[in-house]
Design brief:
This protein is an alpha/beta fold and 412 residues long. It is 33% helix and 24% strand. It is built from 13 helices and 20 strands.
Length: 412
């Protein structure tokens, strides 16, 4: 896969920088400075609550532009949100509060920032910042999932770290340099996965015992769906092969639903073709069951108080990614496996290194089961032939971009 252009090689763009009411608002000034240093024009806008945390004069001084705060400002004739949206190549909301995320997900347009987002003609980047309990609340997670599934919003962060209250957890805003880098990638106008075909698997498999019972696992599919959404947003043609999950299909992504490991195997074979030329990369985020009942009953197994519980003989399921790796004649397609394991960091990394070698894949995403299954965020390390990265905790959307970054940097 080809390496992406460096941000400073991208053509100068117009970035609308929207600031909402978080203690982290002061960091938006540094984001503006970094973008201007790279040659971009920055149009600043703020919510009323944001002005309580950072002065409009400060932001205006850095940007060299007047700060827009009111949709009805008489100094700006016409529809201000339309005018800003027309001029901006990218809208960056830095920081984005829980309230801002909720209103964006609902399509609200009750202030200048949300109205501009609803009218944006280009991509929108949001940098969430809030207390960890606010970030982990199911309502916030549902709002984030809704935004990502729409296909136009990219997340930068949040990350694990101390927040204003002194508590530590997932919710701290990403650092300005990371946010500026993400904005510049969007501003470049060409996705770094453009022209690539990426196949992603997601979710669990259900292996039938009888018509009403099955063997399964706790995978929610969120990581795989985040990978599919981010790959599509970065320009890839994406096929998502999904086990039984209740998640919306990311915008622009082709989806095939399966239930068992054998069905997923067949879907992969159909997608890749006999010569494996059907994809440039395969990301196996699905939690495929290692075993299945050797035979499934055609009728419901009855409970009989007079007899012991029935024994279930198990058969081994095929190792899907190992099968694909064994068929590779060269380095294509790139193969990414997941190592979901119990134990401490050392045990998880040891398992991932073993999986990298035994399955002959290019990258293994190592994560612990208790930090992954069912969560909106995750903590992972990336393991390849060169070694292992440190464990990083972030939203699954942000981690998806880290995984795809590693794929893009892989030699063609």
């Amino acid at each position: 896969m080809t390496e992406r252009p460096r941000p400073n090689e991208s053509r100068a763009r117009v970035v609308a920088l929207a600031v909402t009411g978080s203690v982290a608002a002061y960091k938006a000034v540094e984001v503006a400075r970094l973008l201007i240093k790279s040659g971009h024009r920055v149009l600043p806008l703020m919510t009323a609550s944001a002005t309580r945390f950072v002065g409009p004069v400060t932001l205006s001084g850095i940007c060299g532009e007047p700060v827009a705060t009111d949709m009805w400002d008489p100094a700006y004739p016409g529809e201000l949100h339309v005018a800003i949206a027309d001029r901006a190549d990218v809208l960056a909301i830095v920081p984005a509060t829980a309230d801002a995320l909720a209103r964006l997900a609902q399509g609200r347009a009750d202030d200048l920032v949300t109205a501009t987002a609803l009218c944006a003609r280009g991509p929108v980047l949001v940098a969430p910042a809030m207390h960890p309990r606010m970030w982990s609340h199911p309502a916030t997670q549902a709002n984030v999932a809704a935004l990502v599934s729409q296909g136009r919003v990219r997340l930068a962060g949040p990350v694990v770290g101390p927040v204003a209250s002194g508590d530590v957890g997932m919710g701290r805003m990403a650092e300005p340099v990371e946010i500026a880098r993400a904005v510049e990638e969007l501003a470049s106008g060409v996705g770094d996965l453009s022209g690539k075909r990426v196949v992603v698997t997601a979710g669990p498999t259900y292996e039938p015992i009888d018509p009403v019972r099955f063997l399964g696992n706790r995978s929610s599919g969120k990581m795989g769906f985040a990978l599919a959404a981010r790959a599509r947003a970065r320009g890839a043609d994406v096929l998502l092969i999904a086990g039984p999950v209740a998640l919306p299909t990311p915008a622009g992504v082709e989806r095939r639903d399966v239930e068992t490991a054998e069905q997923m195997r067949a879907a992969l074979a159909d997608a890749l073709g006999p010569d494996l030329r059907g994809a440039d990369a395969v990301v196996m985020a699905a939690a495929v069951a290692d075993f299945r009942p050797a035979s499934a009953s055609a009728t419901k197994i009855k409970k009989d108080a007079a007899s012991a519980a029935p024994a279930i003989d198990l058969a081994r399921n095929p190792d899907l990614i190992a099968e694909i790796a064994a068929r590779r004649a060269g380095e294509a397609p790139a193969l990414v496996a997941f190592a979901l394991e119990t134990g401490d960091d050392a045990a998880v990394l040891a398992y991932a290194r073993k999986k990298l070698e035994q399955k002959r894949v290019d990258l293994v995403v190592a994560n612990a089961a208790h930090e992954s299954l069912g969560h909106g965020d995750n903590r992972v390390a990336l393991v390849d032939a060169a070694g292992a990265s440190p464990f990083v905790a972030a939203s699954k959307e942000a981690l998806a971009d880290r995984i795809l970054d590693r794929l893009v940097a892989r030699p063609a």
